[in-house]
Specification:
- It is built from five helices and four strands.
- By secondary structure, it is α+β, with helices and mostly antiparallel strands.
- It has one domain.
- A four-stranded mixed beta sheet has the order 2-1-3-4.
- The longest helix is centred in the C-terminal third of the chain and has 16 residues.
- The chain is globular, with a radius of gyration of 11 Å.
Length: 77
């Protein structure tokens, strides 16, 4: 079983699509897209994902990728 990483489709169009393209993340997590995750204000101002329901956000997509990887790695521990 792998942890679930949920990404809002609208956030993907802003640049968080790098999470979908990351090989390590896709091997270690089930990365899924959702039409809307109901965090519209956050989505408008930053990048975010839910890792096993835990909100992770960042002002930059590459930083979000790193934070997401850290959360996934911590899930395995």
């Amino acid at each position: 079983m792998k942890p679930v990483v949920e990404i809002c489709l609208r956030n993907i169009s802003k640049g968080s699509d790098i999470l979908l393209q990351d090989e390590w993340l896709n091997q270690h997590a089930d990365v899924i897209t959702e039409g809307c995750l109901q965090f519209c204000e956050l989505c408008a101002d930053s990048f975010f994902v839910l890792v096993e329901g835990e909100l992770i956000s960042s002002r930059q997509a590459d930083e979000l990728l790193n934070l997401t990887k850290q959360a996934v790695a911590a899930w395995y521990q």
